[in-house]
Amino acid sequence: MGHYLEDLNEQQRIAVTHIDGPLMIIAGAGSGKTKVLTSRIAHLIASGIKPGQILALTFTTKAAKEMQGRIFKLLPPTVSPVGLFVGTFHSIFCRILKVEGHQLGYPQNFTIYDTDDSKQVIKYIIKELSLSDEEYNPKDLYSRISSLKNMFIQAHDYVKDKELTKIDELAKRPLFYKIYQYYTQYCFRNGALDFDDLLLKTYELFTKHPACRERYQKQFQYVLIDEYQDTNKIQYLITNLIASISRNICVVGDDAQSIYGFRGATIENILKFAKDYPETKIVKLEQNYRSTGHILQTANAVIANNQSKIDKKLWSNNELGDKIKIVQASNEYEEAKIIADKIQEQALRYHYGFNEFAILYRNNRLSRSLEDSLRHKNIPYKIYGGTSFYQRSEVKDFLAYIKFITNKNDVVSLLRIINYPTRGIGLTSINTIQAFAQDKQIPLYECLKMVKEIPDIKPSTAVTITNFINKIDELATIINEVNAYRFTIAVEETFGIAKSEINKIEKNKDATRYENMRELINSTQEFVELRSADDSNAVGITNYLEEVSLLTNEDNDNQPKPTVKLMTIHASKGLEFPVVFIVGVEEGLLPSHYQDSDLEEERRLFYVAITRSKQKLFLSFATSRRNYSGNAMPTLVSRFISEIPEEYLDKSMVGYASSGNYNAPNRVVNSPKFPKKYEPYPKKIETKHTPQLINTIPKSKPIADHIPSPNFTPSSPQLITEGQKIEHQKIGYGTVLKIENPRTQPIALINFEIGGEKRIMLQYAKIRIVQ
DNA sequence: GGTACAGGGGTTTTT
DNA sequence: CCCCTGTACC
Fold this sequence. Notes:
The protein is α/β, with parallel strands linked by helices. A 7-stranded parallel sheet has the order 11-12-10-13-14-9-17. Strands 3-2-6-7-1-8 form a 6-stranded parallel sheet, with helices on both faces. It binds a DNA duplex through α4, α10 and α27.
């Protein structure tokens, strides 16, 4: 025991060994924050505190998992961390509400609505109130409701507050109060909680039921909160409530890295912590172990321009290292090309692996040109972000079945599946039944059960609906009898959801919907296997749902291939890379000119981006960039660059472009007279046949009259990899561009010489590897 | 009920 | 420019 104290610096050791009383750790970028947090938990346990008395809260599942893993490693094998509460705010409070929610009138099997579901609810309400969705825009309404909830202003409080209602009157939505009320009722009646409710209702539970609150106050003697600068008001309220008796609350954060103000995080929480707890011990972790001197000094110089901050200065024993390279390009394609060239050069000259590079941008749109240039140079890359697996519509379609069977009050899921796959229950019938339900004040599901008694419903439709409901009810009886995988299989066998997608593949040549559904089924199997390995009995579909509803990230990060990583600056927080490129460092982009974005937050964003880098940092900008309408517009270099002292900068690549080394692929593009867009880089064409020949053949027409070569013997699907030349028995020659879903049901994206790109399911196709 | 095309709108993102 | 939504039509 105690080995975890050995490689800590003085400040880190103070933080780790502090046991009782409030503690605030101001942890600069790269100062060993997670190490301190996990070591402190290990230390608490080693000091005799029971794991079950410790509550550690994070924002992301990723952070929670990492913490769990690291704590486990720190503990001696004789000590078990079982019972330790490490998780996201949402998952921990979800668990509490599963047990205690009945006191607020929620069923034990409540459904969790994600952002899409919530917006759907709002859409229904707008329709019901016959409002126009121009003035009452669902997206805006959702974010308004969400931010109110995050400030702990519920519908009944909102109505009473003149200042708040005035805001919405001025925003030309005087009926907002009604929407908020209806929304609250709708969710409640559906037995559903949205993401914000998981926090809000936990707080309400604790304020309304003192006995319940006291139990948790007693249980959680030690509360730890990661990324405290990102907490919003409701999170602040709950954690303070839980810790108000023990006063053993430890928060870790860095005000300089607060970049989520736009979604309700308030930097105030960290700034006023010491006022809330006058006896707070404050520890500042200022030694940076990550970056070289120039990078660190640059970061310090930039952040010094912010007014509101906690005083601290990062320092390091690391060498000064390279200066920060400023790259100027004339447009985004040139910028992308320079970066791709630099990556290649750095990789060759300094033996960096491709996984040691990251390209960061403010805005997802900027990834496009980078993607093109990397592909052009055959540099492997992966773009992080975008819609995650569980948000895909087909996955949600499938999950809606499971959600509805679990909770039959969930109208959102019901309406999603009632005619999917199409079974002849059209909009007219649905509207009639809904009107009936509304009129008679009977839950929609009950109406479906008595559909025969509803006037204006055709007998044949009634039969279809009854069949549907019977199948649902039948499945509901086995929910707790079988594991998640068996249950999912049963749902698929009953309704043929994924199966219904197979027919569409032929038509659309797009198997992704089917694929993702298969993947979902596989994931339930994985879930069961994983949990069984942990000796857990929680392998049912409700357990699976709970996990999946709160897990929106695809953390399939175990990439076999080293890749350059492309992501937004927001997504890069908490990560580090040897070589970092920050692109689009221009006015309007970084800092963003969007509406009322906060300049100091933009600067913190730039600060976060800089401090991701360990050894080399490139800041690039283009003097002209295309806007949404495709027109090249002149740009200005970001003011943030001028905040960096000249002596840290290497400007040898400024004006580099105009020296003629980097010609844009097409210079005519600036002219608006050429509406037809150029291809950034010509697509590679395999030249076995002459291009002319290809051009004479209509592209869309499927070519099935290829005569296989005399030595045609199909290769095993496992042997087919990216980049190979292959011969398809029916389609002909082509190059494998990509293998999708290599683990489950591999599909190859093949660029055929005749017929172009096609997706081929390898397990069925007869394909011979040519080379 | 599914497709095809017009029109609109378009930061950052976790749960 | 690109993607998503809604509507008109088959």
